[in-house]
Design brief:
Strand order of the largest sheet: 1-2
Largest sheet: 2 strands, antiparallel
Strand content: under 5%
Structural class: mainly alpha
CATH superfamily of the largest domain: Tetratricopeptide repeat domain
CATH topology of the largest domain: Serine Threonine Protein Phosphatase 5, Tetratricopeptide repeat
Number of helices: 14
Length: 267
């Protein structure tokens, strides 16, 4: 939770080109940096911003600190850390969320920044937006000389989204692609899980042959999938849901909630 509710509001807006939005407070500037860190570049911290913080928001102390960093030719990570810390808008635990990103932000490639954006969409449940950005990363593979492991993780993320959308064969195609890029056993096991969860014997056979899955590994995964299914099927939530649906209790509400959840995930 943010530890400061609000500060001085300016009648004059400050326009942030990256998100094409006017902001009127230090809190909104912090919100932009915290939630759109992939869009923050060194050019964002300019004299115009410093003057706005000083004259319109009344925080000459922060403006002066930012100007000193500018005179010292500080790295982008130093500006971000300073502003977020001195604003006292986010708690220590919240700031730790962006710490890893900030550490390497000065040397991040465009693809790495895009992945931050896509991961953010995924965490918010905006699956369609996440897919769009993940695909954009893969389409630019030839432009940026990043590791196969990086692109494999992107492909795996696409597979996970398709799995959540119950598009099992689409999911497996990207799990397989991830393995082709970087042969991590995780990606092979994901294909097995997906085939077992969907009782797709044809896909399971192809996966066993494709990755040379041993009988021991297959049985271990099969047991795990079975245990998860039983856990879900016997949970109080599932039992109550089935009872309500079969007896017509809140049936339309259940259907409407399904639709709403699906549209939220794919928006």
């Amino acid at each position: 939770m943010a530890i400061q509710v609000c500060g001085r509001q300016s009648k004059t807006p400050y326009y942030i080109e990256a998100i094409k939005t006017n902001v009127y407070s230090l809190e909104e500037i912090n919100f932009f940096i915290f939630n759109h860190i992939n869009l923050v570049y060194r050019e964002f911290f300019c004299d115009e911003l410093f003057d706005y913080i000083e004259k319109e928001l009344g925080r000459d102390d922060i403006a002066e600190g930012l100007r000193k960093l500018s005179m010292q030719n500080a790295d982008l990570k130093d500006f971000i850390r300073y502003l977020l810390k001195e604003s006292y808008y986010y708690s220590g635990s919240e700031l730790s969320v962006v710490a890893a990103y900030v550490m390497n932000i000065d040397i991040m490639s465009e693809a790495e920044r895009l992945r931050i954006e896509a991961d953010g969409y995924y965490k918010m449940g905006k699956l369609e937006s996440a897919l769009r950005v993940y695909f954009e990363i893969l389409s630019g593979m030839e432009k940026e000389a990043l590791s196969e492991a990086f692109y494999a993780k992107v492909a795996y993320s696409i597979g996970v989204i398709y799995a959540r959308l119950f598009m099992s064969r689409n999911a497996n195609s990207f799990f397989s692609y991830a393995y082709d890029l970087y042969p991590d056993p995780l990606y092979a096991r994901a294909c097995v899980y997906m085939a077992l969860v969907n009782n797709d014997e044809e896909e399971l056979l192809n996966t066993i042959i494709r990755f040379n899955i041993s009988d021991e590994t297959l049985e271990t995964i099969r047991a795990r999938v079975g245990a998860l299914k039983r856990e879900i099927e016997t949970s109080d939530e599932t039992v109550n849901f089935i009872y309500d649906f079969e007896n017509g209790i809140n049936r339309q509400t259940i259907i409407d909630n399904w639709k709403e959840e699906y549209y939220e995930r794919t928006s």
